[in-house]
Records
---
Amino acid sequence: MAELGRKSVEEFRQSDKLPVIVVLENIRSAYNVGSVFRTSDAFLIQAIYIIGYSAKPPHKEIKKTALGAEDTVSWKYFKTSAEALDALRAEGYSVLAVEQAEGSRLLHTFQLEPADKIAVVFGNEVTGVEQSTIALCDGCIEIPQLGMKHSLNIATAAGVVLWELVRGRLGKE
């Protein structure tokens, strides 16, 4: 582990995180939640906000895919998206839904400054981000998709979006 430069749990907790919070709204699969924990650990994401009926730690299926990231990444549970978004705004975060919607901005055109605080909302595997939640967001970002299918698994979408948000900040801090 030392040769790979991996942080211990304590080193991770004490590391400066990127000012990005992932919001998981009504995610059906605990495996998907666990995968997002693992990706969030990889990119030093600030926290995950878990909403509604999404599984939350401790949970055996989260543990199976998170591989310990459920112990490193901070998380909070909220009953509703409105409560989570209110808390985010109180902390100075801009909130964007990751959704194919009218007026959404393509992910690769979205520019952030290193200090910008952003939260990204990922929705249910079948229905996406709830329309009532989209209405509360500051906008939507969309992953360009070129093939016949215009949907991605939530864990895959989170990996793409979080990498793009992290990639744009590398070397700028």
---
Amino acid sequence: MKRIFLLLFSLTLLQIALAQGYGFKIAKLKYNGGGDWYANKTSLPNLIKFCNQHLNMNIAREEAVVEVGSPELFSYPFVHMTGHGNVVFSDAEALNLRNYLISGGFLHIDDNYGLDKYIRPEMKKVFPEHEFVELPFSHPIYKQKFTFNNGLPKIHEHDNKPPQGFGIIHEGRLVCFYTYETDLGNGWEDPEVHNDPEDKRQQALKMGANIIAYALTQYL
């Protein structure tokens, strides 16, 4: 209950800050299990810069790092998670993440290839009553400032599978958006990291901006 109150208080402060033109911070999720939670070091700073320039946001230039079980999780309206490998949530961490999400927080998970088989059972610990459901292309997350009529863009190819956007919906609200087989985070990186065509990077950045914009509309 205390943590839920802290999140509600933090979100109230965020609403005031946004209304008055002050900034706020987003975070990258640090998790246990050995997976590379720290992957894509330049991705969030580049996405933040893009959002500030094109959506007139005032997000702090550097993201925070927050652990799944930390009370500091409740300080951020938007948390991003990525990696290639193993993920383990303890029972206490799963409960903390659940409380964060049902109280107004938003989690974006980006499969950096190889995360899928690990993240699904761990998110089941968080929401045992829910399954990931694929969002239709008509969902508002694809229709923010930038329109993606065919859903997620395909940034990198791995297994010749289409990109898919999955969600966990709790009491009618999208609390977690999981981007699979797209590699959005790679597309946000500095150009020289993957040498992607600029149009691919722009697609990734625009979709990322949509995700942040949508997340903020969930409680504003």
---
Amino acid sequence: MRPEAATLMLEVVGLECRRGDRRLFSGLGLTLEAGTLLHVRGRNGSGKTTLLRTLCGLFAPDAGEVRWRGESIRDLGDEYRRDLLYFGHLNGIKGELTGIENLAIAATLDGDRVATADIWTALERIGLAGFEDLPTRMLSQGQKKRVALARLMLSRAKLWVLDEPFTALDVDAVSLLQGLIAGHVAGGGLTVLTTHQEVPLTSGQVARLDLGS
């Protein structure tokens, strides 16, 4: 590991991704230090989701690589995934399970030891008091989104990758999520996100990447 890797968390080197015969982006490079939020911007179809999935190791680039703390994420494998929390377009919520059960399973898969009392507290804080032990198929789309976002309160991951996290949230939930992101960044974490909504993301260090410009 290189000496500067303690602060240099995420690197993208010469990244190229294609969708079929269409090149979304090429020669993409960036470096992000601890305590940074990266806002990825661009029109629909510019490759924002593809980039986020590539950063998570869920999509193999056509060229280049992603590095975490100076090491290729391909080589790090599970070690990288333990430092990562990905929130995509699908909430990953199982309808037959309650919010409590969904979050307990998610914490186990993330490798986090989370007390049941902490899960109840997270759901109450996210605005789901009284709905914690209902099957999530009975919840509204916005409430399901809140269950998924409660993972942010329980996760110990250093890197959050969030694809349109504000969609389907009301004003109170948007405000809470903004606070969670700001707190994560202020604590030395790193957040990469996309959003079409105009929200004041954080008062900390904000980097911006425009795709397709």
---
Amino acid sequence: MYPALPPPRLQVLIATHRAPGIERVAAMALPELEGVQYIVSWQDCDGIPEPEYFSRRRDISVRRFYHPGVSANRNNLLELATAPFVLIADDDLVYTPDSLLGALAIMENNPDTDYFSFRYSGADNKTYPEAETSLATLPKGFYQTAFEVGLNRSRLGRELRFNEYFGPGAPFFTAAEDEIFLYTARRNGLVCRYFPFTVCTHPGLTTGSRTIVPDGFYRSHGAVIALNNRRTWRLRIALNAWRSWRHRRAMLFHIWRQMRQGAVRALHADYI
């Protein structure tokens, strides 16, 4: 029998599904670090054997999860977490010892912060604020990606959950679960801050950067705009629909209509 591992200071919460997903996790070459553990929540896994790799890693726990939706999967991870600090993760990221220990140091050195937003490097070439800043008011052009997020579970962050009406697997709002997560944190009065620290690398494009996206993406984007800009959402949606039309070459009226539908439903919903 191996001796028990000491309680972790940081847990990395990795959501995945199906056989290719768990294989991607096994290929992530997750750093073995004192005080750092990994929890994998694995959906759509019936009848699929767990890769033998995980039997050699005492710091990685794979838990099978049988409910649909990426937000439900992430919430399962938050329920399983026990460390004072966590990072939200996907199954195709690259972490280094310096990136994980650096993020942990920032979180431990800012105990009055509930919600930490970092940055990532990757093909999206996403832009960020140049300096550390509060997210009580969102910086111009700022949007959240889930795997940039860390939480202080020893504070109110332990109560924060993803809205399961948003994200892949949801019927109407099929994206923006990460931005609604931040919206929920801000609405609930959590202390949210951005730190200009690169926590990981994402090799490919995220959904929002792809040329062709489904209608549920536009509805979700409209919801985020309306919730964060209740007085000016109509004008902002028109402007964003025009920008999306120029970038993606979809029909302008169709984009605007989908975004407006998402905005109206979000503003009148009792589950947001």
